[in-house]
């Protein structure tokens, strides 16, 4: 049953396939480790490189992409507000990124049936972050550094170190989706 064994799971990066296989849709997760932010334009550029069979400038194997574009950082802060963006906008890029080893995605909202099937095929996980809570989520970011496509400003790819970043498993490795149950 979907919510019967609800638990809080401490999860660390890089992601481990055995650990991911034990996650269930509806599980609450506290994520610690390295994640990368990427929104539409960064996704487009990564997928173009994959399409040209070029080596990606960052290794996505067993990594997580957070669909987020941080706001300007206030003095004395590590990062500005960093809430999730609508995940369905990234659906058209998901197959290519999963094919190169991406194992986790963080965003908000439903994913398409095609993406749900891809998550199941690649034994990946889609996590939900609470929309509208970007200022709260920023307090879980230990460090933030733009590393790729810096000319995109807030849509650049940032490397974040997070500690106990609160998430919910939306689609697990078996393809079970909390929006469908």
Relevant terms:
alpha/beta, fumarase, 181 residues, 7 strands, 27% strand, five-stranded mixed barrel, globular
Give the strand content.
25-35%
Topology-level CATH name: fumarase
Run of helices and strands: EHEHEHEHEHEE
Shape: globular
Strand order of the largest sheet: 2-3-4-5-7
The biggest beta sheet, please?
5 strands, mixed, barrel
What integer is the average pLDDT? 92
Q: At the fourth CATH level, what is the homologous superfamily? A: Fe-S hydro-lyase, tartrate dehydratase beta-type, catalytic domain
> How does CATH name the architecture?
Alpha-Beta Barrel
Q: How far do the termini sit from each other?
A: 9 Å
Count the DSSP helices. Answer: 5
Mind telling me the C-alpha Rg? 15 Å
Number of strand segments: 7
Total domain modules: 1
What structural category characterises the helix and strand content? alpha/beta
How much helix, percentage-wise, in residues? 10-25%
Low-confidence spans: none
CATH class: Alpha Beta
Short description:
23% of the residues lie in helices and 27% in strands.
Describe the fold and architecture.
- This protein has five helices and seven strands; from the N terminus they run βαβαβαβαβαββ.
- The protein has 181 residues and is α/β, with parallel strands linked by helices.
- It has one domain: fumarase (Alpha-Beta Barrel), CATH 3.20.130.
- Strands 2-3-4-5-7 form a five-stranded mixed β-barrel.
- β4, α4 (113-122) and β5 form a beta-alpha-beta unit.
- The model has no long low-confidence stretch (mean pLDDT 92).
């Amino acid at each position: 049953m979907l919510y019967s064994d609800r638990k809080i799971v401490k999860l660390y990066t890089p992601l481990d396939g055995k650990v991911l296989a034990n996650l269930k849709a509806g599980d609450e997760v506290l994520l610690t480790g390295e994640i990368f932010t990427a929104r539409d334009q960064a996704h487009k550029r990564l997928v173009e490189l994959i399409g040209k069979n070029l080596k990606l400038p960052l290794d996505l194997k067993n990594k997580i992409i957070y669909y987020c574009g941080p706001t300007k950082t206030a003095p004395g802060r590590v990062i500005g507000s960093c809430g999730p963006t609508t995940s369905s906008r990234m659906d058209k890029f998901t197959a290519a990124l999963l094919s190169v080893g991406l194992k986790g995605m963080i965003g908000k909202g439903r994913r398409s049936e095609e993406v749900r099937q891809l998550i199941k095929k690649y034994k990946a996980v889609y996590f939900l972050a609470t929309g509208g809570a970007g200022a709260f989520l920023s307090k879980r970011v230990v460090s933030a550094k733009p590393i790729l496509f810096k000319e995109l400003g807030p849509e650049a790819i940032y490397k974040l170190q997070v500690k106990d970043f609160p998430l919910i498993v939306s689609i697990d490795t078996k393809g079970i989706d909390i929006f469908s149950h």
